Amino acid sequence: MRYFVHISYNGINYRGWQRQKEVIGVREVFESNLERVLKEPIECIGCGRTDALVHASQFFFHFDVQKEWDFDLVFRLNKMLPRDISVFDIIRVEDKQHARYDAVSRTYDYFIHTYKDSFLNERSSLYLERNLDIDKMNQAVKLIPKYSDFYSFCLAPQKQPGTVCRISSAKLFSDHNVDRLRFQITSNRFLRGMIRIIVRRLLDIGTGKLSVKEFEDLLMNRIDNTDTKPAYPQGLYLTKVTYPYLDLPPRTDVTSGNLNEWIEI
């Protein structure tokens, strides 16, 4: 029997979703707790991978179990799990349905604050930049859905089976003071480091280090960018995952934070 699990997590204490040697990932936390409560070996297959320190306000994984349980597993897991991981729903699905391969779209949000705020440090990325050219940054954002090959925005693109992504939406938002920014992007898939490299390039445009034309050249051509450092990880959130047979609204709202409203630029 196969089940989808709808969760969220604050990634600041984890090295991403995936299980790794000598460091803790969210998958390991779930597998160990599910095995404790269900009394059988459990393998959790996630809807994707997240980098170290990256968050997910909506994430799905599936697992198979030999026999059903007769108790409230959502309640039990939430009592056992650490405070930075939440379980919202456990849904019985068909045995062939797959949390990773069946996802048709994923949305990520990246948050930036340009002033030092101790309450934002783990929820947003600090870039002490004055007078970012928001108009030029937005011009670049609007170019993104017009292209499909993101070779130039991938860490180690040569190791990827392909670098084509179908971007359905890319938007830039700000708060009323324009000192906090939110970049949102939706695609059928993403490459390793892709969103954080895009954000880094947008910041380069905002500070005048890169022109909009140069940004479009990166979109048009397959250019190795081994010298490009991705933007900081803690500002990045996986915020929405959609399946042909499952489209649940996120239960955690990270898009507003302590702001009353985000304004699309």
Furnish the topology, listing elements before pairings.
Layout: E1 2-9, H1 26-38, E2 45-46, E3 55-64, H2 73-80, E4 85-93, E5 105-113, E6 125-126, H3 134-143, E7 167-174, E8 180-187, H4 194-206, H5 212-220, E9 236-242, E10 263-264
Helix pairs in contact: 3-4, 3-5
Describe the structure concisely for a colleague.
The chain is α+β, with helices and mostly antiparallel strands and 265 residues long. Helices cover 20% and strands 25% of the residues.
Provide an overview of this structure:
This protein has helices spanning 26-38, 73-80, 134-143, 194-206, 212-220; strands at 2-9, 45-46, 55-64, 85-93, 105-113, 125-126, 167-174, 180-187, 236-242, 263-264. It folds into two domains: 2-93, Alpha-Beta Plaits (2-Layer Sandwich); 105-245, Pseudouridine synthase I, catalytic domain, C-terminal subdomain (Alpha-Beta Plaits). The termini are far apart. Helix content is 20%, strand content 25%. Strands 1, 2, 3, 4, 5, 6, 7, 8, 9 and 10 form a ten-stranded mixed β-sheet that branches. It has 265 residues and is α+β, with helices and mostly antiparallel strands.
What is the second-level CATH architecture of the largest domain? 2-Layer Sandwich
**Roughly what fraction of the amino acids lie in strands?**
15-25%
In terms of structural class, how would the helical and strand content be classed? alpha+beta
Number of helices: 5
CATH fold name of the largest domain = Alpha-Beta Plaits
- Tell me, briefly, the overall form: globular
Percent of residues in helical segments? 10-25%
Spatial gap, N to C terminus = 46 Å
Find the CATH superfamily of the largest domain.
Pseudouridine synthase I, catalytic domain, C-terminal subdomain
Output the radius of gyration. 19 Å
> Please, how many domains?
2
Which residues form runs of ≥5 with pLDDT under 50?
Answer: none
What letter string, H or E per element, gives the SSE order?
EHEEHEEEHEEHHEE
CATH top-level class of the largest domain: Alpha Beta
Calculate the mean pLDDT score and round it: 94
Number of strands: 10
Largest sheet: 10 strands, mixed
